[in-house]
Write a structure and sequence with these properties.
Strand order of the largest sheet: 4-5-6-7-8-11-12-13-14-15-16-17
Order of helices and strands: HHEEEEEEEEEEEEEEEEE
Number of domains: 1
Distance between the termini: 29 Å
Mean pLDDT: 83
Strand content: over 45%
Largest sheet: 12 strands, antiparallel, barrel
Shape: globular
């Protein structure tokens, strides 16, 4: 089980000059490699007992797709999440810089809180706080709910999210909870990612229908936090927004390092730091991350 609250693997170079040197060249090479991977990636799913969208039932341990229902036994899940590609040690805080399609720069803070939530389907999930700010003002604030099954798959059970303008909530669209109004949980990180794996990340008909696919487990990237190798590359799509496509790169014992919007936007979100947050950070109400 991961226990390090500042999980920097040995294969990271934290030299600022090394990070800056050739970053845009490497990014271009990465995108070229992604294109080649898309041309050769497998199209089948792994360990799935049903066909996407046929409303049949899968068991925990398989990878659900589309509207597949899932037999959820709360005793199969834990809030101790130690999947190497997405470790969630309470107190860990990731800080990202996101550059939007219009050049605006946003700061993103993701904190694994010490709190849990019982989901409507009976699973107890870990609460993770995700806060986006622009020029110091909150523009989006979210509670995400995760749990890990006995095989090591990390499941996503929903979110309570809000967008803000001038300190006021403008919308809570996208919020859902597995087990409420037909919403279903999904896989956010497989236990043993293998190229060709496809899986549902979340499902709330017409509101949240995100999908993931593993493309590679041997990539590299440079971000302000350092240089990473042997990375997991995933392809994320949205069924109800077919023009949207993101690539995400994860490093072992660190988590998400880089997100690239390659269709439906041109944003880049990169990891700038990992540290330990204050004990109560991220536990305040939406719009007030710290109490």
């Amino acid at each position: 089980m991961a226990t390090d609250l500042d999980p920097v693997p040995a294969r990271i170079s934290t030299s600022a000059s090394a990070t800056r040197r050739g970053r845009w060249r490497r990014t271009a090479l990465l995108l070229a490699a992604i294109t080649l991977l898309l041309m050769s990636a497998c199209g089948g799913s792994v360990s799935s007992s049903s066909t996407a969208g046929d409303n049949s039932t899968t068991t925990v341990g398989h990878l659900p797709q589309g509207a597949d229902t899932v037999d959820v036994d709360p005793t199969d899940f834990t809030t101790e999440i130690d999947n190497p590609y997405l470790p969630m040690v309470p107190g860990t805080r990731w800080k990202y810089r996101e550059v939007g399609p219009d050049g605006e720069v946003m700061e993103v803070a993701v904190i694994v809180t010490n709190t849990t939530k019982q989901i409507a389907n009976g699973v107890t999930a870990r609460v993770v706080r995700d806060t986006v700010t622009l020029d110091g003002e909150i523009v989006e604030d979210t509670f995400d709910w995760y749990a890990q099954d006995q095989e090591g798959n990390v499941w996503y059970f929903g979110e309570d999210t809000a967008e803000f303008e001038n300190g006021e909530i403008t919308t809570t669209a996208g919020s859902f909870e597995a087990g409420v109004d037909g919403a279903l949980p999904g896989i956010i990180m497989p236990a043993n990612p293998t190229p060709g794996m496809k899986y549902r990340q979340e499902y709330y008909a017409g509101e949240a229908e995100d999908n993931g696919e593993v493309l590679s487990t041997n990539e590299m990237a440079d971000v302000p936090f350092g240089h990473f190798e042997g990375m997991l590359l995933t392809k994320d799509t949205i069924t109800i927004e077919p023009d949207v496509l993101e690539y995400k790169l994860f490093a072992r014992n660190v988590g998400l390092v880089l997100t690239l919007d390659v269709s439906g936007g041109s944003g880049r979100e990169e990891l700038i730091n990992v540290d330990t947050a204050p004990e109560d950070a991220g536990t305040g109400p939406l719009g007030s991350p710290s109490p």
